[in-house]
């Protein structure tokens, strides 16, 4: 069995996609591409320019105008990559609470999705890629060689996000993080355009009680079943 070249990892917020995706890509020597940062970059561009998030036309126009680059880390501060918005480093701005609060409505706009999906497909076409998001297995790379859908119960995902925020020196309340997570889950899975859901041929892994290394081992076993090792 040859190694899958195009790997799609989807799932809700804080299900482990980015940690697992990055480590898997490192082990395979593949490109790691987190598509969520593109939706976050458009959201941050709207907030910076005071474009109202509920103005679909203006948000879509901006999504088509801005130039988003995702490159290797340019600063050694724990980042997985550097995100440039029209050439400016906005990597940490994309993790601000106001981006968290507004990114789901922005990513529900069909015109925004069309603009970003096209760029993501171009990146995926090169192969040797682990692409992470919500609609990679269903829309962006429906012909991916391996599709994984990571899930975990919402309380555990909120706990993970809360710990990440505390580690960055923020002081969120767990209740607020949990509420925000529920709201994002609802918008991401109820939207008309490319809603969050597993592709019919995706392998679903519930990571609620799994460590990172257990999840990685499970995925590696899928790529190379134990008896073939
Ligand atoms: O993975 P994340 O939390 O950085 O994603 C931010 C938002 O972007 C999330 O609310 C849903 C959206 N998103 C999407 O709709 N499609 C993707 N492929 C990736 C992210």
Describe this structure in words.
By secondary structure, this protein is α/β, with parallel strands linked by helices. It has a single domain, classed as P-loop containing nucleotide triphosphate hydrolases (Rossmann fold, 3-Layer(aba) Sandwich), CATH 3.40.50.300. Helix content is 48%, strand content 15%. The chain contains 9 helices and 8 strands. The strands form 2 sheets. The protein has a 5-stranded parallel β-sheet, with helices on both faces. β4 and β5 (88-89) form a beta hairpin. The radius of gyration is 17 Å and the shape is globular. The mean pLDDT is 93. It binds 2'-deoxycytidine-5'-monophosphate. Residues 13, 35-36, 39-40, 103-104, 107, 133-136, 184, 188 line the site of 2'-deoxycytidine-5'-monophosphate.
* SSE topology string: EHEHHEEEHHEHEHHEH
The helix tally amounts to 9
| Approximate helicity band | 40-55%
Question: Based on DSSP secondary structure assignment, what is the total number of beta strands?
Answer: 8
Counted up, domains total 1
Assigned CATH architecture: 3-Layer(aba) Sandwich
CATH superfamily: P-loop containing nucleotide triphosphate hydrolases
Whole-number average pLDDT? 93
Which secondary-structure class do the elements indicate?
A: alpha/beta
**Cα gyration radius (Å):** 17 Å
The CATH class designation is Alpha Beta
């Amino acid at each position: 069995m040859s190694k899958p070249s195009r790997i799609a990892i989807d799932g809700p917020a804080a299900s482990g996609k980015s940690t697992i995706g990055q480590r898997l890509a490192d082990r395979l020597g593949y490109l790691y591409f987190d598509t969520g940062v593109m939706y976050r970059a458009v959201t941050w561009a709207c907030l910076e320019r005071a474009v109202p998030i509920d103005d679909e036309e203006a948000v879509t126009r901006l999504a088509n105008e801005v130039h988003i680059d995702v490159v290797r880390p340019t600063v050694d501060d724990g980042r997985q990559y550097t995100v440039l918005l029209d050439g400016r480093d906005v990597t940490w701005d994309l993790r601000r609470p106001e981006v968290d609060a507004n990114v789901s409505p922005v990513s529900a706009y069909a015109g925004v999705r069309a603009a970003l999906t096209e760029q993501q497909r171009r990146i995926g076409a090169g192969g040797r890629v682990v692409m992470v998001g919500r609609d990679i297995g269903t829309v962006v790379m429906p012909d991916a060689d391996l599709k994984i859908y990571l899930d975990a119960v919402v309380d555990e995902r909120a706990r993970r996000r809360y710990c990440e925020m505390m580690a960055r020196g923020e002081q969120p309340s767990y209740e607020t993080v949990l509420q925000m997570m529920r709201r994002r889950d609802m918008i991401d899975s109820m939207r008309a355009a490319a809603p969050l859901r597993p592709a019919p041929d995706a392998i679903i892994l519930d990571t609620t009680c799994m460590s990172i290394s257990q999840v990685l081992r499970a995925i590696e076993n899928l790529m190379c079943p134990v008896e073939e090792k």
